[in-house]
């Protein structure tokens, strides 16, 4: 735990030319996967036993998702899977995903 500096301590450090370290808030990690031409992004790692909808995509692309480094820019076909890992995958979200795939240049 970093100490909380008093105004006198801050002034003394400044006079001595010592930089004052401040705690930065770490951003939440983001995990990226590639499944054929589709990029998947989420706040948690994909489980070993994939959800049903993702198994369907694996069958469609004839491969499994592969973990990758974050792309330099967000790809055209990128799906955020975070909410879908909780067990419920709304029909509207499925339709949106399939529409993205339908209109993408795969």
From TrEMBL:
This is Uncharacterized protein. It comes from Idiomarina loihiensis (strain ATCC BAA-735 / DSM 15497 / L2-TR).
């Amino acid at each position: 735990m970093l100490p909380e500096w008093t105004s006198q301590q801050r002034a003394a450090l400044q006079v001595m030319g010592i930089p004052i370290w401040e705690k930065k808030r770490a951003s939440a990690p983001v995990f990226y996967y590639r499944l054929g031409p589709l990029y998947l992004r989420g706040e948690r790692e994909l489980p070993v036993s994939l959800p049903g909808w993702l198994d369907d995509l694996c069958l469609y692309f004839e491969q499994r998702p592969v973990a990758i480094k974050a792309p330099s820019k967000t790809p055209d076909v990128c799906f955020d899977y975070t909410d879908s890992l909780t067990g419920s995958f709304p029909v509207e979200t499925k339709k949106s995903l399939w529409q993205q795939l339908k209109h993408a240049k795969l």
